Amino acid sequence: MSVVLTEIDDRGVATVTLNRPAVHNAYDGAVIDGLLDGLARLAGDPRVRVLLLRGQGRHFQAGADLAWLQQVAAMPPAANRDFSVRTTRAMRDLHLFPRPTIALVHGACFGGGVGLAASCDVVVASQEARFALTEVRFGVVPAPIIPQMLKAIGLPQLRRWILSGEAFDATRAEGMGLVHEICPTGGLDAAAAPLVDAFLRAGPEAVAATKRLTLEIAGQLVPDAMVDRLADVAATQRASAEAAEGLAGFLEKRHPAWYRG
């Protein structure tokens, strides 16, 4: 079973579906590789005019698979770092995808899932959606998604949510600029339809050039040197004693040692 599904309809609307519903689409190495491969193929396909990103099952995406992170942290340093490089590149590839992108968010959108949503041009969320940048609560650093989060909500908002790990609802997400549209539960496709039509009305090459230029002027292209820096920080912290305790605490259903509440 493929953990990342891709399809293109006859209008040129591509859909990328995260497909690990049993673990709320939490990402591991296979999901990251599936995203890298799928996005590369779709970016090079001249039929594609719009890309939709969605999650299979009850939730959009619950962040990293923490059991998998434990395994990665125990790998040799080069393999640990390679996972962070690939994760950072997957986020960047979505962020820089040459056609308009729309994230359709329902249920849980946590950790890297928030980064995936923020990497899209438009985010549509159903009213029950919940968001949280949870990484610091497990002693890890959400380095691969920081550039996209800064783009989406700005530094004043990000300083609170990325440092506290607090959860917030769709209404608050809309207020801070992460979410563009809120729809009733079950109404994501209907809410996205006019957005898709609007993008299809625009000249595809003009859209691609406009998107690239806009990101360039905003300083949002995420050069390779920044990818390396983000990967180094993420991999180093993931291999730390603090991360080992944070991940163990979650998997053992207990508070980490640093919490004295």
TrEMBL record:
<protein>
    <submittedName>
        <fullName>Methylglutaconyl-CoA hydratase</fullName>
    </submittedName>
</protein>
<comment type="similarity">
    <text>Belongs to the enoyl-CoA hydratase/isomerase family.</text>
</comment>
<dbReference type="InterPro" id="IPR029045">
    <property type="entry name" value="ClpP/crotonase-like_dom_sf"/>
</dbReference>
<dbReference type="InterPro" id="IPR051683">
    <property type="entry name" value="Enoyl-CoA_Hydratase/Isomerase"/>
</dbReference>
<dbReference type="GO" id="GO:0008300">
    <property type="term" value="P:isoprenoid catabolic process"/>
</dbReference>
<dbReference type="GO" id="GO:0003824">
    <property type="term" value="F:catalytic activity"/>
</dbReference>
<dbReference type="InterPro" id="IPR014748">
    <property type="entry name" value="Enoyl-CoA_hydra_C"/>
</dbReference>
<dbReference type="Pfam" id="PF00378">
    <property type="entry name" value="ECH_1"/>
</dbReference>
<dbReference type="InterPro" id="IPR001753">
    <property type="entry name" value="Enoyl-CoA_hydra/iso"/>
</dbReference>
